[in-house]
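Summary: Need help interpreting a holo structure output

Steps to reproduce:
1. Submit the protein chain below together with the SMILES for adenosine-5'-triphosphate.
2. Request a joint structure prediction with the ligand placed.
3. Inspect the structure token block that comes back.

Expected: a single structure record containing both the chain and the bound molecule.
Actual: see attached output.

Input attached:
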Amino acid sequence: MTLQAFQLACLRGDRELFSQLDVTVHPGEALHVVGNNGTGKTSLLRILAGLALPSEGEVRWAGEDIRNAPMAFRSQLNYFGHLNALKDDLLAWESVVISSAILGKTIRPDEAYSALDLLGVQHIAELPVHALSQGQKKRVALARLPFCSHTPLWLLDEPFAALDELAISHVAGLIGRHLDNNGLVVYTTHQEVALPSGNRRVLDLNAVAACG
Ligand SMILES: Nc1ncnc2c1ncn2[C@@H]1O[C@H](COP(=O)(O)OP(=O)(O)OP(=O)(O)O)[C@@H](O)[C@H]1O
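--- attached output ---
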């Protein structure tokens, strides 16, 4: 299954962030979206996820406009956004269990603990989300990734921000494993992070904006 976007344009207020943007991502490919602050990386990921509408153009998954079958598309999607989508009152380990369940995967508490451990935050597993730092929340949100191999399309907005070297290499490894399993990944990062495998291409929104 392939992700395609045709002739996308994005308006924010009275400003056009990009236009005439075509995107294609095949199984086993990662598309790294780069660009200065405010060029529209998050806006593009939200459009690709079906969370925002483009002012022009369309997004297709497996050849079908995602607006025609939104539920089917969402079942194929793992969207990781800036806000982490965690519930403040849940414990960290419960958050991993529930966010995995929302994405269709039932996991045991010990699996959630192991995933937190690999991201270096097992010690906060019994704390409620509201008591965590921003970096800890991010790790809790990322801890679901090992359980998302069944959702082929991963759209990851700044997955490496606020992580230390060990956690970055762990997340890069998870992305690489997903690509090895024919997953598709579109991600943003301001950091230069090498993926251990997969075919990575770069989409530079600075260049798109300059041409648009
Ligand atoms: N809801 C909104 N209404 C109006 N303008 C918005 C809205 N959301 C974002 N913008 C503007 O659109 C532009 C692009 O924002 P976006 O978050 O997509 O950029 P980005 O490339 O992801 O930036 P960063 O690297 O800082 O995360 C910014 O100028 C932002 O202020």
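--- end attachment ---

Reviewer comment: The first strand starts at residue 3 and ends at 12. The CA atoms of residues 62 and 132 lie 39 Å apart.
Status: needs-info
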